[in-house]
Structure formats: structure tokens, C-alpha cells
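User: Continuing from earlier, I have the next pair ready.

Assistant: Great, send them over.

User: Here they are, in order.

Assistant: Folding the first of the pair now:
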Amino acid sequence: MQVVDFEVSNKLMAKYKILTPRTVFVKLEKEAQKAAKNFGFPVFLKIYGKNILHRTEIKGVGEAKDKSELGKMFSEMMKIKGTEGILIQEKVQGKELIIGMKRDAQFGVVIMAGIGGILAELISDFVLRVAPVSENEALKMLAELKGYPYLQGKRDKNPINFKEAAKVIAALSEMGLKEAEIKEITLNPVIVNEKKAVTVDFKLLK
């Protein structure tokens, strides 16, 4: 499988009304500095390449707190094999979910939702459903997670907006059913706070 082009992926996210942070694809440091100035520091840098499937494993993700740090990080990332450019992205704060779609030979389009970010692989807290998945069913998925109390804000008094998170799950279900050329989708993390759900990193494979 191959990573879907960034611009095409972006258009699909917009088509299904999946909110993403402001992101610019650049190839030159001066373009990166201009984007960071517009967004305001800190910003995230993420390498992009059609054959790069796992950025974090090859040090292809970083957070720059100022111009100097951005310049150094940009230079290092552009040296990574397979890098076609860098994504400069504004920082979003909240709790992290992972939401995904896979095509299964037996069940068809399968939707996954779980606790995301770096915790995704450590705790394996996720649930599955066969599409179509409605917003109401998506809410039930979230309620089944072991981390549900965490999402409710039991410890830090910062509950997520469950309705907005459910909208993303339902939208991914719809995308999976309608966009047959897309074989697999991973949204990780989806940052959710009390107001909105923003898909910070997404990977579409065809």
C-alpha cells in the first residue's frame, strides 16, 4: 500500500468535514519559518513522503519552540530518506484519541476508536464496529473504552466533547463506505477538548 498524496488526503478530510489544524506543506526553510510565524510558536514539524508509513520511528516528528529550533529541526528532517517535504502544523491541546478504518475480507469496512497518541500502542484500549457507524453508535463505542472515565474528566475536570468525537468516527465510517480506493485510514491523534475534535495527524493508504 502507498500513502495517499497530502493534498488529496486533505481534500478528503474536508469533504467529510473532519476538522484538521492549520497545516502547510513546505520544501524550503524560509517557507517553514513563514508558516510558523503565521501560526505562532510552538509548531509541529512532520516529514512527508509517499513511502513513509511511520514518521515517529525515524524521528520524523518534532516540536519547535522558536526560529532557531525550527531551522535546526527542518535541516535534520530533510535529510531523512524518502522525505519529500515537511508539514508545518499549529499546536492543538486536548485529550488524544485514535480513530481508524480498515477493509476486512470477511466483514468489510471496520471502524476502530480508542485512546490515542503515544498511549495507543502501550495500553491497546480500543473498540471495533462494522460500518456503517452512526454518531449514536460512535458514542457507545467511546463509552466502552477502559479510558472512558479519563475522557469524562474524572481526574482533571477537563471532559472531552463526546459529540464532536462521535462526529469524526461517523464521518470516517462514511468515508470508508464511499471512497472504495482508500484501503486503510489512521487518524492519530485526534485531539479532543471541551469544544472540538481536531485530527492532528492522518494517514490514508491506497
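And the other member of the pair:
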Amino acid sequence: MDGLQCIAIVSTIIGRMDTGLKGRLAIVAGSSSGIGKATALALAAEGANLALCARRQAELDQVAAEARSRFGVETFTQGFDVGDPAAVFAFVTSAQAKFGRVDVCVPNAGGPPAKPFLDTTLEDWERTWHLNLRSAIVFSQAVLPHMQKQHWGRIITLTSYTVKQPVPELVLSNTIRAGVMGLVRSLAGQFGRDGITVNNVGPGFTSTDRSRNLLETRAKNRNVSYEQVLGDLEREIPIGRMATPEEVAATIVWLASESAASITGQTILVDGGSYKGL
């Protein structure tokens, strides 16, 4: 089953309920590919207009064009690095000026490199903090005043199941992404009375270029084939396969919907049952 078929099925299932997203504005970062792209298209399928950002402008524009042609929504795109706070604030300001509202924000950024702890550098840690935690802080600071005025909003961060179950070679991600959970819990407690929910989605291994790169690194480090590490991984996942980006996107759409108004401060794992804790 390809990505478009998955989105169609997800849209059919979610379409049986009123998500309340039609005409709202959804900001999706890192939306030129992978989970970010799937999330943008899934929100567009619910009638949400899109403000999309990523470093690759050309790919971003292609996603926006697909959303407009398939779902008839309005779009706004801007290419920049979410590690740049000034660029994030300028983007949110421009999106709000264009659409007159900010309803949903999905701070999303690529994951840090896979390295053993003693191979990491201070530059690695600084970059990971900027990309995977500070960007979520800055996006939240930028969108919350607009959401407060509307007395409605959804912030849905994207991390990894490593916030619950660390992966040995992902020490950068294990450490920095856990801070996002603290942010989510803190904001949920402070802004719930403003009609704003704040949640986190933690995908496990998902069928994206990111996962392939991680498995290629694992295969190289173990001096075995990619196929072997992929097979070993799939045997460890209770459902026997990696998740699709569209399955992760469906969870984000649900958390953004009216139906999830009482869900806040939570981390929802989309990991095929990989997390072994209670």
C-alpha cells in the first residue's frame, strides 16, 4: 500500500467524525518530506489551510501544490532552518497576517545523527538543542499569543519513542527530546484554560529516509547487511513492520481535532508496540 492510499484510508476513517479543522490554519514544520509531509497532507484532507516550512523550498512548494490540487486548501510556504529563532517568529507572523489566525502548530525537525556518546562533540549537542528542543520552544512562544486570543489551539510536537525507551546509538536524541516532554507537560498545565491543548507524538521506527539512514549506520557499525538489521528490527516490533508516515500523521490529526479536546500533556507513541514499559 503506497502513501496516497494510506492517506485516503485515513481520511475516510477520520471523515466519519467532524474533526473541526476545516478552515483552520495548521503550521507544519519540516513538511517537505517524511512524517511532516504526510501530516501536512492529512491536515489538508480535513480542510485545514497550511503554513509550511522546511529548509528545501522546492520540495516544500511541491507539497503545497499537491495539497491545493487535491484538497482545495490555501497554502503559504517559506524555506528556512527552524534552528533560527528570528526566522521562526517571522514565519509565524507572516502566516497569521495572511490567514488571520493560527490554530494548529506541529513543530517538527530532522533528528540528530546517530553516534556513540564519546564520539559526540559539543557542536553536536548545541545543534541538537537548537534543532530539536529550542525550535519547539520558539514555535510555542510564537503561536501561543494568537491561540490565546482565539481561545482555541493545538500544539503537537514530534519526537521519538526514544523519549520512553532510549536507543543506544541515539544518545543525542534520547537526551534532548526528553526535554520536549517537559515542555509539553509544562505548557499543557499553563494553557489548558485558554482552550489550548499541548501533546507530543513519539514515532518508533517509521518508513522514512531517516530510519533507513539509521539502519544503514547500524549495519555498518555491526559489519552486517542492511537487510539483516532491517529483519532484526522488524522481528523486535510486535506488529512486524515499521509504521508508515501516514499512520503517524493520523495520530496528529486526531490530537488536533475537536474530539481530542480533553487530551493534553500526553505523549502518544506510534511505535508498533516497541516500547516495553507500562
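Worth noting for the second one:
The CA atoms of residues 204 and 271 lie 4 Å apart. The domain at 3-270 is CATH 3.40.50.720 (Rossmann fold).
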